[in-house]
Amino acid sequence: MLDLPTMDDIELRHKTVLVRVDLNVPVMRGxxxxxxxxxxxxxxxRDIIKVNGKAVLLSHFGRPKGKVDEKFSLKIVVDSVEKxxxxxxxxxxxDWNDVSEAKKxxxxxxxxxxxxxxxxxxxxxxxKNDIELAKRMASLGExxxxxxxxxxxxxxxxxxxxxxxxxxxxxxxMQKELRALSSGLDKPAHPVIAIIGGAKISTKIDxxxxxxxxxxxxxxxxxxxxxxxxxxxxxxxxxxxxKDLSETAIRIMDKSESEHCAIILPVDANVAWKFxxxxxxxxxxxxxxxxxxxxxDIGPASIERIKGAxxxxxxxxxxxxxxxxxxxxxxxxxxxxxxxxxxxxxEGKLVSIAGGGDTVSAxxxxxxxxxxxxxxxxxxxxxxxxxxxxxxxxxxxxK
Length: 399
Ligand code: AMP
Fold this sequence. Notes:
Helix content: 25-40%
Radius of gyration: 23 Å
Bound molecules: adenosine monophosphate
Largest sheet: 6 strands, parallel
Distance between the termini: 14 Å
Structural class: alpha/beta
Number of strands: 17
Shape: elongated
CATH architecture of the largest domain: 3-Layer(aba) Sandwich
CATH topology of the largest domain: Rossmann fold
CATH class of the largest domain: Alpha Beta
Strand content: 15-25%
C-alpha cells in the first residue's frame, strides 16, 4: 500500500480545508436510509473544527449527468450530517461554473464552520477530471483532504486533479481503511483465505488472478462457482453458469496449482426449481444433482469444509455472497459462514476484511458487520484494490 501523507503531517489551525467525502448515500423518500459513510468521516471533520479550521465538504451524489438537477441535490444529506456531527451545517448551492458567490460565503463563515457545497457532478468537468473545474474548486480552500476511499478508483476533478493543486492529505477514515486493507492483502498474517462469491465469474476474473498470487486458499461460492463445476464436468442442471468461460475457469485452476493456492469449491448445494423466496428446495451432493434444478446456495458439507479452512486461517478477505442471499432460505450458507468468521474474529483468531455492496448487505443481514475487523463500504474501489490496482486518486496524493 502507498505511503501517503496524513492529517498528522499538516497544521490545520484556522485553515479552510476542502474535504472530499463520499455523500453518495442510499436515500428513500427524501431520507437517508444508511448513514454509515457519514459516520465514518466524522473524525476527520472533528479534527479540523477542533482547531478552528473550516471544513468544506465536496462530494458527488447519484448521476446527474453533468447538469444541475435538483433531484440530485446534496441538500438531502444536510440533516444527517448535522446529526452525525451535532453541529449546524452551511449549505452552498452552485452550478460550479462560477464559484465567486460560494467563495464569499466560505470566507464570511465563522471559524470552525462545517460547509457542504453542492454535488460536484452538477458540472460535466467532474467526471472528465477537468483542470479548470479543479482550479475553481481549489480556489475555495487552502488544503485538500481525501477521505473518500470509495470514490478513489475514479480520476475525477474532485478526487484526482484537485489533489495536484493544493497540499493534499488522506483523512482519518481513509487512513483507517488503507491500514485495514493493507493488513488484508499487502502485509497479512498467513495463512490468508479469500472468500469469493456473487453471481458471475466474468466480473471478477482480474480479482481472482490477483488473489491467486497472494492468498493461500480461495473459497469460491455463489453463482460463479457453477462455472468452475461445469468446467470440471460436474452436472449443474439449470443453475446460473457462464459456460463460455469454462476455459478461463480451467486456466485459473491450473494457475492455482503453480501458485500453491488451494481452491475450495462447493461439494453440495441447496437446489430449487424456482428462483424465488421459499421456493421448494432440497440438498444435493454435487455428484447427484437434479438435471432440472438450480443451485441457489452451498450445502451443509460445503459449509463444514469452508469452516475447516477458516479454522486454519489468520486472515480472511471476503467479497460476494455464497448464495442467492436475498431469498430465504438461500441465505443460510452466507449467514452461517459470516457468523463463523465473525466469531473467530471476536475470539482474536482472525483478521477479517470484507467489502462490496452486496457483501455489506449480506453481512448486515447476518448481523455481523461490527464483529468483522473491517467492512469497507466501497464497491468499485474495493474490487479494484482486490485486483491489485493502484487507485488514481490515491496516486495523486503521493508526494
Ligand atoms: P455480485 O454482484 O457479482 O457480487 O453478485 C451478487 C448476487 O449474486 C446476489 O444478488 C446473489 O443473489 C447472486 N447469487 C449468489 N449465488 C447465486 C446462485 N447460486 N445463483 C444465482 N445467483 C446467485
